[in-house]
Amino acid sequence: MKNKIFVFLVIQLFIGCSSDDNKSSNSIFSINLTPSASSVVIDQSFTINVGANEEIKELWVSTDNFATGGYAQRQFGTIYTLNFNFDTLGQKTISVRAKNQDNVVSEKQVIVTVSRGNALKINGVQVISFYGINTTYDPEFPATNPNHLADLRFGFSKNKLGNPLDNIYSPAYWYLSSVIENQGNMTWDCSNASLYLNPNASLKFGLVDIDNGIAGADLLNGPPDYREISFNNYIVTKPTTITYTFPEINLEFKLFVEWVN
């Protein structure tokens, strides 16, 4: 009888340990990342599915090892789709950190390579004329002093993905030029700025007078304070210089463009 009791206790102890092991194993929160593509081209949208063995309460997403990045606290479930779009070349390390209901954290990374594809490259900009050219924008200087002329800065904006957690695109600054004082030659070399763009996308161009380091006058006589431009008419012919003209505000400028052969 004693032997039977001993065997029963051993069995119960084994079952109890096995149950505890299973419970411990099930409590290890982990995520996995599944990208829709590991190689993409400029401006190509792609996704990463985040899968977890427990419900996700919080998510962090970063492309610079969490120096910056999106964060959200909500009920994500056990599967959530992140959205991405890159306009610069090279390898991108995407880090995802998740936390479950018990505040256990799991972190994973994926690497995606971005190549040029058929993206055009903007190498330079030259302004020919603008609203109020050769007139006084700095009235503290007399007309005989070149300092009375506008100090020029242009900018490009385009639709950009705001947050990988939400698939929402909205207009955002893409590039701001250096300042050319007193009108100067009104020509900027952008060849080192890596301005790659899907040729089917549109851009918004703005031009301002800079006064004491901030934007003073809008040189497009807005609103609106931009003009939208497109490359659709040039995809076949691929000119290296494209001129845009908006006579209603005396705006004319050229883009120096590099195409993929």
Q: What keywords describe this structure?
A:
six-stranded mixed β-sheet, elongated, mainly beta, 16 strands, PKD domain-containing protein, 261 residues, 10% helix
Distance between the termini: 90 Å
Backbone shape: elongated
Strand content range: over 45%
Helix content: under 10%
Query: Class by helix and strand content?
Result: mainly beta
Low-confidence stretches: 4-11, 13-25
Entry summary:
With 261 residues, this protein is mainly beta.
Q: What does this 3D model show about the protein?
A:
This is PKD domain-containing protein. Helices cover 10% and strands 52% of the residues. The strands form three sheets. Strands 1, 2, 3, 4, 5 and 6 form a six-stranded mixed beta sheet that branches. The radius of gyration is 28 Å and the shape is elongated. The chain contains one helix and 16 strands. The chain has 261 residues and is mainly β. The model is unreliable at 4-11 and 13-25 (pLDDT under 50).
SSE topology sketch:
Blueprint: H1 2-26, E1 31-35, E2 39-41, E3 45-62, E4 70-85, E5 90-100, E6 105-115, E7 120-129, E8 152-163, E9 166-176, E10 187-189, E11 196-197, E12 202-211, E13 214-218, E14 227-230, E15 241-246, E16 251-258
Parallel strand pairs: 2-6
Antiparallel strand pairs: 1-3, 3-4, 3-5, 5-6, 7-10, 7-11, 7-16, 8-9, 8-12, 12-13, 12-14, 15-16
